[in-house]
Records
---
Amino acid sequence: MKYNFESNLNDNNKAIVIGVKEDFENDSNFEELDALFNGNFKSYIDAGVIQSKFKKIESSSAVLQTNVRKVYTVGLGKSEDLTQLKLQEAFGTVLQALKKDKVTDAYLYVDSFSSDDDFLYDVGLMGEISVYEPFNYKKDFKPYELTLSFNKEVNEDKLKEGQQAGEAMNFSRNLSEMPPNVLYPESLVELIEKEFSGKDNVTISVKDDKTLKEEGYGLLHSVGDGSERKPRLVTIEYKNSDKAPVALVGKGITYDSGGYSLKPRTGMVSMKYDMSGAANVLGMMKTLVDQKRAVNVVAVLALAENMVKGNANRPDDVVIAKNGLSVEITNTDAEGRLVLGDAVTEAITHKPVVIMDFATLTGAVIGALGESRTGLFTNQSRQYLEDVLKSSEKVGEKLWHLPMDESDEAAVKDTQVADILNSNLRPYGGASFAAAFINQFTEDYPWLHFDIAGTSQFAKQNAYGPKAASGVMIRTVVDYILDGSMYD
Ligand code: BES
Ligand code: MN
Ligand code: ZN
């Protein structure tokens, strides 16, 4: 999104965007708006040309003073019911209508939505994410560009803050959308270095496959060794506070064929998204770094491609994790928990206040929660989750606490040849089993596990973006980290 702070509403005959409350007549700026419509605003409402029902979009032409102009309106419902999330939804929806009509220049009548400065954050955010265009290779692709102007002076800092958050989400979405022949561990490392190196308070370190083998990261190494494209373990530190770090761990399987426990042909399609956990951690880091937040965060990304090859791991293998646990591999398609085990061990070396991991981990979580809720597991009490659940509600990303207990731990230990096994091959409760597996590596550090298998992509277009990678949990976790309650 581009912004033009110079021109104002009356400058020319560009389209105008208006939010319409049921009780629009009570708006302090209504007279100004009505004057623009030559005193006819209510007639447009009475004729049904403009409607106030929440999220109802109308586009029409109107005589604004002396010019015929295009008018886009979005209903906001009753002003007393209006929340930040509803404003975001309405604004994102009207932007998508402008995009559909290929409108390239528009004025936003800011006060018709809200006279609160905070709304500018929502404008900046939704301006990036609602009209996001998935990374693609279409021959005739022309990116959509809209230049937005305002009817008054606006708080540019708030606007920029929202825009930065949106750009970070789109950065992560683009990584998820990239095809797996282009995006693999080594090429992802290059993109990470391009994005983060040289930024204030940021250090990046990368372990290649030789180092992983030498230093005993047996789980990540064994998964990644089945591919021509070798695995990497990436650590990004952003230290802009003296407190213990928050650790963010991401599953970065750049393609998940299943390995020798091969996926069926339909199950393999879309497995390029299996690095979305890592991509979304990168989006969280980018938000915090670009906004120069006073926090201490360390990101650990386990990057590998799960493929079939002569030396790929096979069901029945036993491998040794970095923390010394022996692991029986019963299913090579349960690779995410393997790479996360070693990544969590790495995160612990930073003595974090909390570890959060993000992973497209199980089909089972989709069965349990559908495609709009992220599954949340923890080794802490339910009370510990209150703050992160509050953040998720605040930003409108659904998050649901799922169980994990001793029975799952017992299942994880039910092997005769090793300390633990990666799959008990039973078709029930798979998300809890996977969580209990990762918990074998947390050493009692507070730990939250986000299973985003169902939510890493939007199943259909909504106000926050098209049917494509979602960048889920970036907004929730940034809010949670900035809230700082994990230090209480
Ligand atoms: N990446 C998949 C999980 C997944 C499935 C994500 C569908 C998004 C959509 C993961 O690596 C996997 O294959 N999990 C297996 C585990 C099983 C073999 C124990 C699953 O869920 O079927
Ligand atoms: Mn898999
Ligand atoms: Zn996977």
---
Amino acid sequence: MQTLEPLIVILGTGGTIAGTARSSCDGVGYTAAQLRVDDLLAAVPALAGRRLEAHQVAQLDSKDMDIATWQRLAIAVDEQLARPEVAGVVVTHGTDTLEETAYFLHRVLAPNKPVVLTAAMRPATALVPDGPQNLFDAVQVAAKPGAAGVVVAFAGRVHDATQVRKAHSYRVDAFESADGALVARVEEGAVRLLGRWPAGEALGLARIAAPAGSWPRVDIVMNHAGADGRIVRALLAAGVDGIVAAGTGNGTLGVDLEHALREAESRGVRIVRSTRCDAGPVMDLPGLLPSAGVLSPVKTRIELILALLAR
Ligand code: ASP
């Protein structure tokens, strides 16, 4: 009896990987989210004949990612993973908020099958597009026996959802893992494991079921030279449930900004300190506002929203 090769499902959400420009030399003035996920697959002849299924979940520039799309995507990924014949899921996405979607899916689903997000820095019409290679690599990762959890496959590297961040605005290898901790590399289609597949405890879809419009409001405020409490006071006036303070260094805050944040905290707003540094933890010290550990400000924001949704 012939054993079927593993089925991989590709979910499309848009991004530059699905973007088009008028000229093949235009790598910046393109429009994201123009091609369908089937078109992306058709551009990778090496995937022809593979056991794949493709579905379009959204079609947007990921700078415009929103809660409703996250909800739809999490449900779609969960449904696909629940099918016994599905070995893994690939999500095509934009690079701008890729790390946020990856972290969101990781916290909500913590899947024991691989969910591999991928993207591109160049539109599909570029002279040398990077999307087809990234999509090919992502499928290899999703089909790798033993692979599990939410990862990002990009430019030959496989990043953990908790570590990954977009670190460059233009370079084709735009993503880095904090402290360099890669999960794997993809070389000529072979996945070479370097670390561990991400694992965690799933919060579950029930946590994110509330209508998008009723989700807690969490904003990010940065410390910088001359920062004061003005933005925090404006947020308080507008209504806010949580504030992530992207502090300097070890999450340090200017005196006026900290004063305003403590005022907000005393009025019931949840405050968490992260750092505007590219990597490294924010250490908790007695008497300081709560720390986000190693999470970047945007991931801290997701963590805080998910925590507030449990109230
Ligand atoms: N603005 C685009 C997006 O995030 C950038 C990209 O895909 O690289 O969808």
---
Amino acid sequence: MAEEKPQHGSLGGLVAGMREGHESGRTKELEWRQAQLGGLIRLITEEEDAIFNALHEDLGKHRVESFRDELGVLVKSFRNTLQNLKKWVAPEKAHAPLISFPCNALVVPEPIGVVLIFSCWNLPLGLALEPLSGALAAGNAVVLKPSELAPSTAAFLAANIPRYLDAKAVKVVQGGPEIGEELMEHRWDKVLFTGNARVGRIIMTKAAKHLTPVALELGSKCPCIVDWLDSKRDCQVAVNRIIGAKWSTCAGQACIAIDYILVEEQFAPILIELLKSTLERFFTEPEYMARILNEKHFDRLTNLLKDHQVASSIVHGGHADRKTLRIEPTILLNPPLDSDIMTEEIFGPLLPIVTVNKTEDCIAFLKPKPKPLAIYAFTKDEMLKQRIIAETSSGSVTFNDAIVQYGLDSVPFGGIGQSGFGQYHGKYSFELFSHRKAVLRRSLLIEFMFRYPPWDEYKMGMLRRVFRFDYLSLVLALLGLRHCCRTA
Ligand code: NAD
């Protein structure tokens, strides 16, 4: 199947074609939506090997990691959407007050229209197909713009999406920033963007021209609080999960990877020793950890370690090979808080550990910081858990694990504040790409003239009763049994 590599100027025709396709009404049909979800499931299952190869070429991901983080999560999510779709598309009955009788109120989800999705390179399949499935389930026509920085996956999507989905209503447009900006010159009914905040601002600015609503899935520094855990086993489980959420998910190149750890000073040496010994047991071969995307990102990460005070805080690792784009799992103890590694999102296999006097001090540490996508805490202290939920703000909070919230279809995924806005996954994806239309059906049977001019105090009194739902007083007033101007 030929890839779609548009020339400048040809995008207008593509967008118009998509709009025509959507306006034909085909994409609104439940059967069409179900067929697209079925197509997505077949795409992932039948093309598994091609996907493993693409993800390996782009990021050096091991096939088991790719299955755990992308293919497995996706197929589970598509099945969940397929199972529930009939229920989600059904109009919801809404309460209508007695005063409006006879009246029937409904909330009817309708497709937003033609949607543009920008995906990012780190989970190049997942971050493209997860939102795509939601947009299709909601009955939209979709243009997908995969990241040019994961070119094998982008080419795979461009070649295979037309084979499995309705090629007239789902298009893949490949290209870099210029194509992205050109796409944003056109009118869309919704744009979902996953990537960095600098480009997020460009997207939002361009979307404003057409009043297009956007969802921005951005990055942040996700902290992880590690409290004292009494048993050796609990400590080991926590460390396994920390490593899983730092080094085993695209080598830390994940928006919800643990960025840094906060821990009590006296517990830090124990934690570091356990991290080191477990890293040794987990990563027995270099290919069990993904590589850094490209030289630019490699240099960005190694530059974070160049500051003298940061370099002297390294307690494990620190080696990096630009040829293979591999950076050793690296642990730092108390790098300066004003250094780049502690002020910028790391997005790589470097883990600073910051010590505090008491675990509770972590809350004061986090409060003034920008709201992250996720806060993690390994603790059994229920009071601490409550305080974290109540006193901090973030896209999500996960206790005693990390990153796994991404795989749940029942909770929304998205940021807050500088980590973005707009939530998706499961039913939240369907809702993100649907418009909830209010539908009221009234009859012409009963008519209250006090809603209309000419105004007088009688009408004012009746309206006051209506808005208090004071039916008894209203009926008495209508029957002339109560002074109609009284408001009490
Ligand atoms: P990227 O380079 O893949 O860019 C994302 C998308 O934006 C791509 O499709 C790209 O082509 C497009 N793009 C780039 N410049 C553009 C422009 N000028 N106009 C229009 N489109 C343009 O990804 P990145 O920016 O390196 O992403 C890394 C960031 O994304 C990190 O901060 C990370 O935390 C964040 N991220 C967030 C999530 C999330 O779900 N919240 C997921 C993954 C990554």
